[in-house]
Write a structure and sequence with these properties.
The protein has 385 residues and is an alpha/beta fold. Helix content is 42%, strand content 16%. α4 packs across α5, α11 crosses α12 and α15 crosses α17. The two termini are 15 Å apart. About 2% of the residues have low confidence.
């Protein structure tokens, strides 16, 4: 089962991994009608290996897939893709528990772009264009593609699930979320600014997360159960989408934009997330913060009592206070050995006593460590893509 946002490359990956498999898309009205009206007949005519694309469009199928898989349990006979967690994960938990392997596929990483000869020249280009495959594969102007993406996928999918009537309010809510990336999630404030109720804002944000538009990063606490009730931070799964939603239409707009820093932080957080998810690992992504304001942007626990602390700065010049949060947590996070990193917008690597400094173009050393691989995670690429 391959899940992820719309247009992240799920179908391409499935068809590449199984080039001889039959392909059926549940987006096709006739195929979806057949599957809904006669699920047993639909599944009964499947070949020796089949790709079922966008299966969230027909959640009824999951109840019948269990019998099909049990009758012929050969691994890889069915490859499913889908872009909404709500219907799929609930159905998989109930019907396909222990029978399905899950992979979450996000848009390209910077390493993948380079491997494909599509590297971006500047931070501003990267944050403006984002990393959705089609923008780079087809050389489509990012603003044009993202505008259509929001209209054809984001608004359609989320409105379909929530039956949203006031499109203007939802568009305003999207922009407000994009303007608060890297901040603690304040549902009450979001709701007030969008002119909706807190209950509505909570529901909209949950569906955006389930549709792989945004993700939340919880604080790290030694007690895992307490992490679930503490306030998380909000990020978008693609920095280009967030940039478009706040009105950035050209790379040059990012030179002095007030959200340049948060957008750069957002991009690094997605690279960390991809390095984990694309290798079948739990996200394990947190941040460090105490009441005194001592903070580190990212913390990834890679083994018991061991973790990577990452400070993220978009500036191209290193200041000594960039390391203050790293210094504090190395001294005060008891029982855990921390490897400190500083990711910045410059172009020089430095191995300092206070931490390893990596330019934005050289995240590979960090990504290898948090993914537990040797040279593969620098691309953040799932095998086969």
């Amino acid at each position: 089962m391959i899940t992820g946002p719309r247009q992240s490359g799920k179908t391409t990956l499935a068809r590449s991994a199984a080039p001889n498999a039959a392909y059926l898309s549940l987006e096709d009205p006739d195929t979806r009608s057949f599957a809904n009206e006669d699920p047993r007949g639909f599944l009964g005519q499947l070949g020796p290996q089949t790709i079922l694309d966008e299966v969230q469009r027909c959640p009824l199928l999951f109840s019948y897939l269990q019998g099909v898989v049990d009758a012929d349990p050969r691994p890889g006979r069915l490859l499913l893709t889908g872009s909404s967690q709500f219907e799929m994960l609930d159905s998989i938990t109930q019907s396909l528990a222990g029978r399905a392997s899950l992979l979450t596929l996000l848009p390209f990483s910077l390493g993948e772009l380079r491997a494909g000869g599509r590297s971006v020249p500047t931070i501003e280009n990267l944050l403006h264009e984002g990393l959705f495959p089609r923008i780079h594969d087809r050389a489509i102007p990012a603003s044009d593609w993202l505008q259509d993406y929001v209209a054809t996928y984001v608004e359609r999918d989320v409105r379909q699930i929530l039956r949203i009537q006031d499109l203007a309010a939802f568009q305003r809510f999207l922009a407000l979320c994009a303007g608060r990336i890297g901040q603690l999630v304040n549902i009450a404030s979001l709701a007030a600014d969008a002119g909706i109720t807190r209950v509505t804002a909570d529901a909209w944000l949950s569906v955006m997360e389930a549709s792989y538009l945004v993700f939340r990063v919880p604080p790290w606490l030694s007690n895992p159960s307490k992490r679930l009730i503490k306030t998380p931070k909000l990020y978008f799964c693609d920095p280009g989408l967030a940039s478009w939603l706040v009105g950035i239409r050209q790379p040059g707009h990012l030179m002095a934009h007030p959200l340049r820093g948060p957008l750069f932080e957002n991009w690094v957080m997605t690279e960390l997330l991809k390095a984990r998810l694309h290798h079948g690992l739990r996200p394990a992504l947190h941040f460090l913060r105490n009441k005194g304001g001592n903070e580190v942007d990212a913390f990834i626990e890679t083994a018991p009592h061991t973790g990577h602390a990452v400070e993220i700065k978009s500036g191209s010049t290193i200041a000594s206070d960039f390391f203050d949060g790293l210094d504090f947590w190395r001294q005060n996070l008891s029982g855990i050995e921390i490897q400190p990193w500083l990711i910045y917008g410059g172009d020089t690597r430095q191995d300092r006593d206070r931490g390893t400094v990596l330019p934005w173009t050289a995240l590979g050393a960090l990504l290898d460590g948090i993914a537990g691989t040797d040279g593969v995670a620098a691309s953040g690429s799932p095998k086969g893509r």
